[in-house]
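Memo to structure team: turn this sequence into structure tokens by end of day. - J.P.
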Amino acid sequence: MPAFTDAQIEDALESLPGWSQEGEAIVKSFEFDDFPAAIAFINRAAGPIDEMNHHPEWTNVYNRVDIRLTSHDTGGVTDRDVKLARVLERVAF
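Reply from structure team:
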């Protein structure tokens, strides 16, 4: 699966509010009411992420979950990253 061009990433991000390109990845910070809500999001996302076998780089600090998606095998953003971003949007709230 080839990495997207910058133009393809830009097109994909039009349907993903709050996501942006950062180098060879797409990123977003999700903010929740509190720590339990942030962890609940991570837990909701875990099953679909594992089914896709495409695991994000993410960190959690209190009520915030920062996510970075990239396809390491291609060295850039691919369709898998965009699909995973859409899944994360669906389970976020």
